[in-house]
Task: inverse folding
């Protein structure tokens, strides 16, 4: 297992700007991928030629006295639900197999403008629905720490690519924990920003009011670097925060003196939380205390209804977002005599079981007679949750909790029972429902050397406090 | 949207699943119908706990953001070329997207 | 239709807004382009695309709301209307459900207040054509889809069921069209599809309160079709009710060719649109600044203009309606009236709604394209008022001026028909005639009224002849009477 710190994005960028070859850096990554990705399957597509050409272009610019940007020559992996013009973008689904978007996502444009070198598209649960990457139509990704285990999901490919040392930076998306939970299971850093901090233009939608794009990296500093590049207002996304969020790289080392940390009792005591995970959270809390923070317990009472509310809102929005995959304009088509039958057969053939299940769940929750009882109620639970968070933040600046109740489970262990799989998200969905930023960082290992992650939450737009807290935790991590 | 106060539902049946599959244009096999019926029923048991909560005086949050009035100027910009657009089409005919015949109008 | 039933009609009018771009993307809002050439990731609903609202469409909707007295909501949101159809790129339409942009307005139609329940914004769908089977959907072999129209901004205007006849329904649409045109938000051309009307028709016993079963009628492509379709439907329903049969709640298509509405193939189940608030858009909160901007430079509405012209010029309501209904005619008349000297506005209007309008209808020209400028018409009216030409002469002069770019004075001079009104000159003529017919003069003075009238007519005829038709008849007549009376 490669130490993720051995390829550090800020170090690479500095080196490349000073004349070190970006092509060499890319080659190193491509070699690492060639050596191990057959086993791990983190990537769905790798375009080596394009990567080398992009790297060569960066080298030329540096030679000409240009500054390519904060991510000069840094190899980046992109989750395969991000549109890249002319490149395969499947969302891990057969229904988009072979589709090449005619446009590029805003975040990808920003990463390119900062001089990064895209290496390829990473594997994910189909349409980002899942917590293990086992729902990919193209085969699962394996956890680099133990290939018999899952890397988490849905951004399992991105997390594994970092953990395996394939690339120093990756982009993922998080709707119910899909960046944070795989980061936790793979022992890397993953952050979900405030809703609206990062443009969703070009992110293939799962649940519109919950989705956010965020960074995955080997350490907090690199994650901060990437977040600063991708965040900011985008006129192409109506839900984009007009003034963006404050820079996080700039304040990373300000420490936690005087910061009030609340440990969320409903989450540390949640169903199925492994003992070693709970202990890791406690140790992280102590480390913060030693660094000058005050720590105390905090209650988010509505948290107990969070999972149920999430599994009404997310599928409802998804059922609508995925209606467009109907075989008419792009993607798979299974022919029939009439268009409605063509639609139904195309979708039956193109979508996997989890996607179908969520589409039906969502359609049912929105259907006549049930809207108020399900979708309507879930939106009310959302309000309760936001109020509970607001109360908590009167006495605390950041919150602490586990990311995932368990360490990485075995492939196939939870696929038989959807509900068992959904429970993996119990600690992460709260931040999505409330629109708050949250991140996971590694804090030691448990049985079998499997990574444990701890989760830090902050109020909207307070990424700086969140990252500062994470930095201190990282420095004390075993 | 349903009338206020209608909170309880009956057990999910295979008929419900077939109805929903039709609304969602998903062709299901009989096996799938059975399997999904059982799974949806168990998932909805959790949902019912939410349905049963008394939240009448809590307003719903459709959105975590409190933005409003986000507008765009009424100025044309070039879009996609027809070739690009039709290149992805499963079936096209002289500049149009082609689909099998339509049996039912909305 | 039997007098036992009252028709209850509500109309849903969809109008395409005359913005430069679509509702949620910057593609051109234009009619008639080659298929699939005005498209982008947003209006095609490509994966990963997001809508961004056209501020001008909101302004147009607020402007409409403002002029028809709609209550402006504190906030307005968009909602997804979910259903599958090939012309729908996302298989949901972004529309408005709860909290539309305009609530509770009204339009006065022939003195009757017709309530308008709501008006809201929504995106249009693409267009499908059916190939094979004579172009009819059910016999087609396959269908073709063009997404140029997908995303074009629509305003849907839903009236209350306050209309009671086909004629009233037509008048409502006519008036609504006039308003939409006047405030510049739509070019409302039914033939181009920028104005579409669906009707909901039900019957109830006269005097009853409850509403009967509502039938929706679609596919009426002109005002005439609208009227015919509603009348047909009223008769159809009346026949059913009189036979004791129920009226089915359904959607029916108007068929222009056979003059009947037809039930559409029965659907398996009614559509469940599963409306929910659109999460990719944020609410509209109309602030005072937005409302003010929407209300700037509002032109006069048709009804107000008709009233004003009738009052100011003392013309009939009918004439006022003619002026305002014909595009450009009221403007022409107002400019002409402004240039009048001695002539009266009432007189000028008579010429407008008479000869001028007749010529416009015959030639197909718009008032602005006439060779005759508004002040030219004023000149003509002034000439008549001054007695320079008679009304009969003016008609001829006008006819020429409508066809050739000549001023009335010019024509009068060319023809040499200027009326002579000079007292001295005409008095001399009268003197000559009196002197030339002493016996007739004596007979006149000795005669009774009936004979006098005849003699006078004879003298007048001589006088007109003597002046070669240019003598001002009024002056001649007066001078003659004086001459015949005196002595």
Result:
């Amino acid at each position: 297992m490669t130490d993720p710190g051995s390829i550090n994005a800020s170090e690479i960028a500095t080196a490349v700007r000073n004349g070190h070859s970006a092509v060499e850096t890319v080659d190193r990554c491509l070699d690492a991928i060639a050596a191990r990705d057959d086993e791990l399957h983190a990537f769905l597509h790798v375009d080596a030629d394009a990567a080398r050409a992009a790297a060569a272009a960066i080298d030329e610019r540096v030679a000409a006295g240009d500054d390519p940007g904060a991510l000069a020559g840094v190899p980046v992996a992109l989750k395969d639900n991000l549109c890249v013009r002319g490149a395969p973008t499947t969302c891990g689904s057969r229904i988009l197999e072979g589709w090449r978007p005619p446009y590029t996502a805003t975040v990808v444009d920003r990463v390119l403008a900062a001089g990064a070198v895209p290496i390829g598209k990473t594997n994910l649960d189909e349409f980002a629905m899942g917590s293990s990457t086992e729902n990919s139509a193209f085969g699962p990704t394996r956890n680099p720490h133990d290939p018999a285990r899952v890397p988490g999901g849905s951004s399992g490919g991105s997390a594994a690519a970092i953990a395996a040392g394939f690339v120093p930076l990756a982009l993922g998306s998080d709707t119910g924990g899909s960046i944070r939970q795989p980061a936790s299971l793979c022992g890397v850093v993953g952050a979900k920003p405030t809703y609206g901090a990062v443009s969703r233009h070009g992110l293939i939608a799962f649940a519109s009011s919950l989705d956010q794009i965020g960074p995955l990296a080997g350490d907090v500093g690199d994650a901060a670097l990437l977040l600063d590049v991708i965040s900011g207002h985008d006129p192409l996304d109506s839900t984009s925060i007009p003034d963006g969020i404050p820079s996080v790289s700039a304040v990373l080392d300000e420490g936690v003196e005087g910061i009030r940390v609340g440990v969320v009792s409903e989450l540390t005591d949640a169903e199925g939380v492994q003992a070693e995970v709970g202990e890791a959270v406690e140790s992280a809390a102590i480390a913060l205390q030693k660094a000058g923070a005050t720590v105390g317990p905090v209650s988010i009472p509505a948290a107990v209804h969070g999972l149920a509310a999430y599994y009404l809102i997310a599928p409802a929005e998804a059922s609508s977002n995925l209606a467009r995959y109907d075989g008419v304009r792009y993607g798979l088509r299974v022919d029939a005599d009439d268009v409605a039958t063509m639609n139904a057969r195309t979708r039956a053939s193109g979508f996997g079981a989890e996607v179908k299940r969520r589409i039906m769940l969502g359609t049912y929750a929105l259907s006549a007679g049930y809207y108020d009882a399900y979708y309507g109620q879930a939106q009310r639970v959302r309000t309760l949750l936001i109020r509970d968070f607001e109360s908590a933040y009167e006495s605390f600046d950041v919150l602490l909790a586990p990311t995932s109740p368990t360490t990485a489970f075995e492939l196939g262990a939870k696929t038989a029972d959807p509900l068992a799989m959904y429970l993996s998200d119990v600690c992460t969905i709260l931040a999505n429902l409330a629109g708050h930023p949250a991140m996971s960082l590694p804090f030691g290992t448990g049985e079998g050397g499997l990574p444990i992650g701890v989760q830090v939450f902050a109020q909207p737009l307070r990424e700086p406090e969140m990252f500062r807290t994470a930095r201190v935790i990282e420095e004390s991590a075993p | 949207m349903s009338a206020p106060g209608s909170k309880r539902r009956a057990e999910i049946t295979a008929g419900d699943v077939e109805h929903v599959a039709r609304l969602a244009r998903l062709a299901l096999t009989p096996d799938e119908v059975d399997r999904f019926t059982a799974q949806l029923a168990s998932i909805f048991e959790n949902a019912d706990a939410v349905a049963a909560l008394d939240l009448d005086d809590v307003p719903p949050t459709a959105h975590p953001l409190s933005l409003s009035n986000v507008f765009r100027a009424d100025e044309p910009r070039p879009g996609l070329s027809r070739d690009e657009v039709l290149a992805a089409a499963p079936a096209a005919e002289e500049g149009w997207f082609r689909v099998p015949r339509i049996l039912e109008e909305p | 239709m039997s007098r036992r039933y009252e028709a209850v009609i509500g109309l849903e009018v969809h109008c395409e807004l005359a913005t430069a771009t679509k509702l949620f993307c910057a593609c051109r809002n234009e009619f008639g382009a080659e298929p699939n050439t005005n498209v982008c990731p947003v209006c095609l609903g490509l994966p990963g695309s997001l809508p961004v609202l056209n501020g001008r469409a909101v302004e147009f909707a607020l402007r409409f709301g403002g002029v028809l007295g709609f209550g402006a909501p504190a906030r307005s949101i968009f909602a997804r209307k979910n259903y599958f159809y090939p012309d729908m790129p996302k298989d949901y339409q972004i529309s408005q459900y709860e909290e539309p942009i305009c609530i509770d307005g009204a339009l006065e139609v022939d003195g009757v207040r017709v309530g308008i329940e709501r008006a809201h914004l929504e995106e249009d769908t693409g267009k499908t054509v059916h190939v094979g089977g004579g172009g009819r959907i059910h016999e087609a072999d396959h269908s073709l889809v063009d997404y140029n129209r997908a995303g074009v901004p629509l305003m849907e205007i839903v009236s209350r069921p306050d209309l009671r006849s086909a004629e009233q329904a037509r008048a409502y649409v006519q008036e609504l069209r006039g308003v939409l045109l006047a405030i510049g938000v739509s070019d409302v051309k039914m033939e181009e599809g920028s104005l579409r009307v669906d009707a909901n028709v039900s019957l109830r016993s006269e005097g009853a309160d409850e509403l009967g079963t509502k039938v929706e009628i679609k596919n009426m492509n002109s005002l005439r079709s609208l009227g015919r379709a509603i009348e047909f439907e009223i008769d159809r329903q009346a026949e059913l009710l009189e036979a004791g049969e129920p009226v089915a709640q359904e959607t029916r298509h108007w068929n222009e060719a056979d003059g009947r509405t037809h039930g559409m193939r029965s659907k398996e189940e009614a559509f469940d649109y599963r409306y929910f608030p659109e999460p990719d858009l944020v609410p509209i909160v109309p602030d005072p600044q937005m409302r003010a901007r929407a209300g700037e430079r509002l032109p006069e509405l048709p009804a107000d203009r008709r009233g004003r012209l009738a009052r100011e010029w003392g013309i009939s309501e009918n004439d006022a309606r003619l002026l305002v209904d014909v595009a450009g005619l009221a403007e022409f008349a107002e400019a002409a009236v402004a240039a009048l000297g001695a002539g009266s506005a009432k007189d000028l209007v008579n010429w407008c709604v008479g000869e001028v309008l007749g010529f416009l209808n015959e030639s197909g020209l718009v008032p602005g394209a006439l060779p005759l400028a508004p002040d030219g018409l004023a000149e003509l009216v002034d000439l008549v008022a001054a007695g320079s030409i008679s009304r009969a002469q003016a008609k001829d002069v006008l006819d020429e001026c409508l066809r050739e770019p000549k001023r009335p004075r010019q024509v009068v001079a060319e023809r040499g028909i200027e009326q002579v009104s000079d007292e001295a000159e005409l008095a001399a003529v009268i003197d000559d005639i009196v002197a030339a017919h002493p016996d007739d003069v004596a007979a006149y003075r000795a005669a009774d009224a009936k004979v006098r009238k005849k003699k006078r007519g004879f003298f007048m005829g001589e006088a007109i002849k003597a002046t070669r038709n240019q003598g001002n008849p009024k002056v001649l007549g007066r001078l003659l009477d004086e001459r015949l009376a005196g002595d």
Q: What stands out?
A: Confidence is low (pLDDT under 50) at residues 1-5 of chain A.
